[in-house]
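Side project, low priority. Logging it here so it doesn't get lost.
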Amino acid sequence: MATGAEVTGGRPGSALEEVLTMRPEQRRETVIRVIRAAQKRLILSVFRCSDYLVMDELAEAVSRGVRVEALLTPRARGDEAKQLEDLGKVLQGMGAEVFRYRDPIVKYHAKYMVADEGPALVGTLNFTAKCFTNTCDFQVVTWDPEVITSLQKLFETDSVSPEAPLPESLSDRLIVGPDRARAKFTALLESAKQSIRIIDHKLADPQLVALLKEKKDAGVAVDVLGSGQVGGMRSHGKMIVVDDRVAAIGSVSLAPLNLDFRREVAILIHEPRCVAQLSGFFQAATAVRAATAEADADDDDE
Protein backbone atom coordinates (compact mmCIF):
# COMPACT_ATOMS: atom_id res chain seq x y z
CA MET A 1 0.00 0.00 0.00
CA ALA A 2 1.26 3.45 -0.82
CA THR A 3 2.17 5.90 1.87
CA GLY A 4 0.56 9.31 1.97
CA ALA A 5 3.67 10.78 0.36
CA GLU A 6 3.41 8.32 -2.50
CA VAL A 7 -0.20 9.16 -3.23
CA THR A 8 0.31 12.90 -3.07
CA GLY A 9 3.77 13.07 -4.57
CA GLY A 10 3.91 10.44 -7.32
CA ARG A 11 4.18 11.59 -10.92
CA PRO A 12 4.26 9.90 -14.34
CA GLY A 13 7.71 8.55 -15.05
CA SER A 14 8.52 8.10 -11.38
CA ALA A 15 9.20 4.72 -9.81
CA LEU A 16 5.58 4.57 -8.70
CA GLU A 17 3.03 5.41 -11.40
CA GLU A 18 0.17 3.15 -10.30
CA VAL A 19 -1.03 2.19 -6.84
CA LEU A 20 -3.43 -0.73 -6.59
CA THR A 21 -5.71 -1.20 -3.58
CA MET A 22 -7.48 -4.49 -2.90
CA ARG A 23 -7.66 -5.13 0.84
CA PRO A 24 -10.63 -3.58 2.68
CA GLU A 25 -8.47 -1.90 5.31
CA GLN A 26 -6.66 0.07 2.58
CA ARG A 27 -9.63 1.42 0.67
CA ARG A 28 -10.91 4.30 2.78
CA GLU A 29 -7.39 5.57 3.42
CA THR A 30 -6.65 5.54 -0.32
CA VAL A 31 -9.76 7.61 -1.04
CA ILE A 32 -8.90 10.05 1.75
CA ARG A 33 -5.34 10.48 0.51
CA VAL A 34 -6.54 11.37 -2.98
CA ILE A 35 -8.97 13.91 -1.51
CA ARG A 36 -6.17 15.40 0.57
CA ALA A 37 -3.95 15.64 -2.51
CA ALA A 38 -6.34 18.22 -4.04
CA GLN A 39 -5.22 21.81 -3.62
CA LYS A 40 -7.47 23.61 -6.09
CA ARG A 41 -10.06 21.25 -7.58
CA LEU A 42 -11.51 17.82 -6.87
CA ILE A 43 -13.98 16.14 -9.23
CA LEU A 44 -15.73 12.92 -8.34
CA SER A 45 -18.39 10.67 -9.77
CA VAL A 46 -20.34 9.20 -6.86
CA PHE A 47 -22.97 6.47 -7.00
CA ARG A 48 -23.29 6.00 -3.25
CA CYS A 49 -21.51 7.74 -0.39
CA SER A 50 -22.52 7.30 3.23
CA ASP A 51 -19.12 7.07 4.93
CA TYR A 52 -18.76 9.86 7.49
CA LEU A 53 -14.97 9.96 7.33
CA VAL A 54 -15.01 10.48 3.57
CA MET A 55 -17.70 13.14 3.89
CA ASP A 56 -15.63 14.88 6.58
CA GLU A 57 -12.63 14.91 4.24
CA LEU A 58 -14.70 16.42 1.44
CA ALA A 59 -15.92 19.12 3.83
CA GLU A 60 -12.34 19.77 4.93
CA ALA A 61 -11.29 20.11 1.28
CA VAL A 62 -13.98 22.74 0.73
CA SER A 63 -12.90 24.58 3.87
CA ARG A 64 -9.31 24.84 2.64
CA GLY A 65 -10.46 26.37 -0.63
CA VAL A 66 -10.70 23.34 -2.91
CA ARG A 67 -13.45 23.49 -5.52
CA VAL A 68 -15.24 20.17 -4.96
CA GLU A 69 -17.55 19.06 -7.79
CA ALA A 70 -19.65 15.91 -7.54
CA LEU A 71 -21.63 14.18 -10.29
CA LEU A 72 -24.55 12.03 -9.14
CA THR A 73 -27.01 9.85 -10.98
CA PRO A 74 -30.68 10.86 -10.71
CA ARG A 75 -31.79 7.34 -11.62
CA ALA A 76 -32.37 5.15 -8.57
CA ARG A 77 -35.21 3.26 -6.94
CA GLY A 78 -36.81 3.30 -3.53
CA ASP A 79 -34.47 4.02 -0.65
CA GLU A 80 -31.56 4.61 -3.04
CA ALA A 81 -33.33 7.61 -4.57
CA LYS A 82 -33.86 9.15 -1.14
CA GLN A 83 -30.24 8.47 -0.17
CA LEU A 84 -28.98 10.15 -3.33
CA GLU A 85 -31.23 13.14 -2.75
CA ASP A 86 -29.93 13.45 0.80
CA LEU A 87 -26.33 13.05 -0.37
CA GLY A 88 -26.76 15.90 -2.81
CA LYS A 89 -28.15 18.14 -0.08
CA VAL A 90 -25.29 17.33 2.29
CA LEU A 91 -22.67 18.01 -0.38
CA GLN A 92 -24.30 21.29 -1.31
CA GLY A 93 -24.58 22.20 2.35
CA MET A 94 -20.83 21.86 2.79
CA GLY A 95 -20.21 24.08 -0.23
CA ALA A 96 -19.59 21.49 -2.95
CA GLU A 97 -21.04 21.87 -6.43
CA VAL A 98 -23.46 19.07 -7.27
CA PHE A 99 -24.38 18.00 -10.80
CA ARG A 100 -26.95 15.38 -11.72
CA TYR A 101 -26.54 13.38 -14.89
CA ARG A 102 -29.47 14.34 -17.07
CA ASP A 103 -29.61 11.55 -19.63
CA PRO A 104 -33.22 10.24 -19.62
CA ILE A 105 -32.17 6.63 -20.22
CA VAL A 106 -28.57 6.04 -19.19
CA LYS A 107 -27.84 5.49 -15.49
CA TYR A 108 -24.61 7.00 -14.16
CA HIS A 109 -22.72 4.23 -12.38
CA ALA A 110 -19.09 5.27 -12.90
CA LYS A 111 -16.77 5.59 -9.89
CA TYR A 112 -13.80 7.89 -10.34
CA MET A 113 -12.09 10.91 -8.78
CA VAL A 114 -9.43 13.39 -9.93
CA ALA A 115 -7.45 15.73 -7.68
CA ASP A 116 -6.12 18.79 -9.55
CA GLU A 117 -3.96 17.52 -12.44
CA GLY A 118 -3.46 14.21 -10.66
CA PRO A 119 -3.64 11.78 -9.13
CA ALA A 120 -6.81 10.12 -10.38
CA LEU A 121 -8.63 7.21 -8.79
CA VAL A 122 -10.72 4.68 -10.71
CA GLY A 123 -12.46 1.99 -8.74
CA THR A 124 -15.22 -0.53 -8.38
CA LEU A 125 -16.53 0.44 -4.95
CA ASN A 126 -18.99 2.86 -3.43
CA PHE A 127 -17.95 5.02 -0.49
CA THR A 128 -20.00 3.03 2.01
CA ALA A 129 -19.25 1.01 5.15
CA LYS A 130 -19.98 -2.22 3.28
CA CYS A 131 -17.47 -1.51 0.51
CA PHE A 132 -14.87 -0.31 3.00
CA THR A 133 -15.12 -3.47 5.11
CA ASN A 134 -16.43 -6.67 3.54
CA THR A 135 -16.74 -6.61 -0.26
CA CYS A 136 -14.35 -7.78 -2.96
CA ASP A 137 -13.40 -4.50 -4.62
CA PHE A 138 -10.51 -2.79 -6.37
CA GLN A 139 -9.09 0.70 -6.80
CA VAL A 140 -6.18 2.08 -8.78
CA VAL A 141 -4.56 5.46 -8.26
CA THR A 142 -2.78 6.69 -11.37
CA TRP A 143 -0.69 9.64 -12.49
CA ASP A 144 -1.09 8.81 -16.18
CA PRO A 145 -1.65 12.28 -17.70
CA GLU A 146 -3.83 10.97 -20.54
CA VAL A 147 -6.13 9.17 -18.10
CA ILE A 148 -6.34 12.25 -15.88
CA THR A 149 -7.14 14.57 -18.79
CA SER A 150 -9.66 12.10 -20.20
CA LEU A 151 -11.54 11.77 -16.93
CA GLN A 152 -11.67 15.55 -16.64
CA LYS A 153 -13.09 15.80 -20.16
CA LEU A 154 -15.65 13.09 -19.43
CA PHE A 155 -16.72 14.84 -16.23
CA GLU A 156 -17.08 18.18 -18.00
CA THR A 157 -19.27 16.65 -20.70
CA ASP A 158 -21.41 14.50 -18.45
CA SER A 159 -22.02 17.17 -15.83
CA VAL A 160 -23.28 19.68 -18.40
CA SER A 161 -24.32 18.00 -21.66
CA PRO A 162 -24.89 14.25 -21.36
CA GLU A 163 -26.51 14.24 -24.80
CA ALA A 164 -23.18 15.27 -26.34
CA PRO A 165 -20.95 12.56 -27.86
CA LEU A 166 -18.00 11.25 -25.93
CA PRO A 167 -15.10 13.70 -25.90
CA GLU A 168 -12.54 13.06 -28.58
CA SER A 169 -9.13 11.60 -27.85
CA LEU A 170 -10.01 9.81 -24.65
CA SER A 171 -7.21 7.60 -23.37
CA ASP A 172 -7.20 4.12 -24.86
CA ARG A 173 -6.85 2.85 -21.31
CA LEU A 174 -10.36 3.97 -20.41
CA ILE A 175 -13.35 1.73 -21.10
CA VAL A 176 -16.34 4.05 -21.06
CA GLY A 177 -19.84 2.64 -21.30
CA PRO A 178 -22.16 2.48 -23.00
CA ASP A 179 -20.28 3.98 -25.94
CA ARG A 180 -17.10 1.91 -25.81
CA ALA A 181 -17.69 -0.87 -23.32
CA ARG A 182 -18.82 -3.75 -25.51
CA ALA A 183 -16.21 -3.19 -28.22
CA LYS A 184 -13.34 -2.68 -25.78
CA PHE A 185 -14.15 -5.72 -23.64
CA THR A 186 -14.65 -7.86 -26.73
CA ALA A 187 -11.23 -6.82 -28.04
CA LEU A 188 -9.64 -7.49 -24.66
CA LEU A 189 -11.05 -11.01 -24.41
CA GLU A 190 -10.30 -11.78 -28.06
CA SER A 191 -6.64 -10.88 -27.45
CA ALA A 192 -6.21 -13.74 -24.95
CA LYS A 193 -3.73 -16.43 -25.98
CA GLN A 194 -3.23 -18.34 -22.73
CA SER A 195 -5.57 -17.35 -19.91
CA ILE A 196 -8.59 -15.25 -18.93
CA ARG A 197 -9.44 -14.69 -15.28
CA ILE A 198 -12.66 -12.85 -14.41
CA ILE A 199 -14.29 -11.69 -11.19
CA ASP A 200 -17.83 -10.59 -12.02
CA HIS A 201 -20.94 -11.75 -10.21
CA LYS A 202 -23.19 -10.40 -12.98
CA LEU A 203 -21.48 -11.96 -16.00
CA ALA A 204 -24.41 -12.78 -18.29
CA ASP A 205 -23.96 -11.11 -21.67
CA PRO A 206 -24.75 -13.76 -24.33
CA GLN A 207 -22.18 -12.48 -26.83
CA LEU A 208 -19.33 -12.36 -24.33
CA VAL A 209 -20.32 -15.67 -22.74
CA ALA A 210 -20.17 -17.21 -26.22
CA LEU A 211 -16.78 -15.60 -26.83
CA LEU A 212 -15.45 -17.04 -23.57
CA LYS A 213 -16.66 -20.49 -24.63
CA GLU A 214 -14.91 -20.10 -27.98
CA LYS A 215 -11.70 -19.16 -26.20
CA LYS A 216 -11.97 -22.12 -23.86
CA ASP A 217 -12.60 -24.47 -26.76
CA ALA A 218 -9.49 -23.04 -28.43
CA GLY A 219 -7.36 -23.98 -25.44
CA VAL A 220 -7.36 -20.72 -23.47
CA ALA A 221 -7.74 -21.29 -19.71
CA VAL A 222 -10.92 -19.44 -18.74
CA ASP A 223 -11.70 -19.07 -15.04
CA VAL A 224 -14.59 -17.07 -13.60
CA LEU A 225 -15.40 -16.23 -9.99
CA GLY A 226 -19.02 -15.16 -9.95
CA SER A 227 -21.56 -14.84 -7.18
CA GLY A 228 -20.81 -15.78 -3.62
CA GLN A 229 -17.71 -15.20 -1.54
CA VAL A 230 -14.48 -14.12 -3.25
CA GLY A 231 -11.47 -14.43 -1.02
CA GLY A 232 -13.72 -14.42 2.01
CA MET A 233 -15.47 -11.24 0.88
CA ARG A 234 -18.79 -10.53 -0.81
CA SER A 235 -18.44 -10.35 -4.59
CA HIS A 236 -18.93 -6.80 -5.86
CA GLY A 237 -15.99 -5.40 -7.85
CA LYS A 238 -15.26 -6.41 -11.42
CA MET A 239 -11.85 -7.51 -12.64
CA ILE A 240 -10.36 -9.18 -15.71
CA VAL A 241 -6.78 -10.40 -16.16
CA VAL A 242 -5.69 -11.59 -19.62
CA ASP A 243 -2.52 -13.62 -20.13
CA ASP A 244 -1.02 -12.10 -16.97
CA ARG A 245 -0.08 -9.09 -19.11
CA VAL A 246 -3.08 -6.75 -18.97
CA ALA A 247 -5.94 -6.27 -16.55
CA ALA A 248 -9.12 -4.22 -16.30
CA ILE A 249 -10.95 -3.03 -13.22
CA GLY A 250 -13.97 -0.77 -12.96
CA SER A 251 -17.69 -0.47 -12.47
CA VAL A 252 -18.67 -2.36 -15.63
CA SER A 253 -20.27 -5.80 -15.34
CA LEU A 254 -20.26 -8.04 -18.39
CA ALA A 255 -24.05 -7.92 -18.59
CA PRO A 256 -26.24 -6.32 -21.27
CA LEU A 257 -27.65 -3.60 -18.99
CA ASN A 258 -24.21 -2.48 -17.84
CA LEU A 259 -22.58 -2.71 -21.24
CA ASP A 260 -25.31 -1.02 -23.26
CA PHE A 261 -27.35 1.25 -20.98
CA ARG A 262 -25.13 2.69 -18.25
CA ARG A 263 -22.38 5.25 -18.03
CA GLU A 264 -19.59 3.10 -16.64
CA VAL A 265 -15.83 3.55 -16.40
CA ALA A 266 -13.14 0.88 -16.24
CA ILE A 267 -9.42 1.21 -16.73
CA LEU A 268 -6.89 -1.04 -18.43
CA ILE A 269 -3.82 -1.77 -16.33
CA HIS A 270 -0.51 -2.69 -18.00
CA GLU A 271 1.92 -2.02 -15.13
CA PRO A 272 3.41 -5.50 -14.49
CA ARG A 273 3.48 -5.17 -10.71
CA CYS A 274 -0.23 -4.29 -10.54
CA VAL A 275 -1.21 -7.00 -13.02
CA ALA A 276 0.73 -9.54 -10.97
CA GLN A 277 -1.06 -8.39 -7.80
CA LEU A 278 -4.46 -8.87 -9.41
CA SER A 279 -3.48 -12.25 -10.80
CA GLY A 280 -2.20 -13.32 -7.41
CA PHE A 281 -5.40 -12.15 -5.75
CA PHE A 282 -7.46 -14.21 -8.19
CA GLN A 283 -5.39 -17.33 -7.61
CA ALA A 284 -5.63 -16.95 -3.85
CA ALA A 285 -9.40 -16.38 -4.03
CA THR A 286 -9.77 -19.46 -6.23
CA ALA A 287 -7.86 -21.54 -3.70
CA VAL A 288 -10.07 -20.29 -0.87
CA ARG A 289 -13.22 -21.14 -2.80
CA ALA A 290 -11.91 -24.61 -3.68
CA ALA A 291 -11.00 -25.30 -0.05
CA THR A 292 -14.42 -24.13 1.11
CA ALA A 293 -16.16 -26.34 -1.44
CA GLU A 294 -14.07 -29.33 -0.36
CA ALA A 295 -14.88 -28.68 3.29
CA ASP A 296 -18.59 -28.43 2.51
CA ALA A 297 -18.43 -31.69 0.57
CA ASP A 298 -16.74 -33.41 3.50
CA ASP A 299 -19.48 -32.14 5.82
CA ASP A 300 -22.15 -33.53 3.49
CA ASP A 301 -20.47 -36.94 3.59
CA GLU A 302 -20.57 -37.14 7.36
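Brief comment: The first helix runs from residue 4 to 9.
Revisit when time allows.
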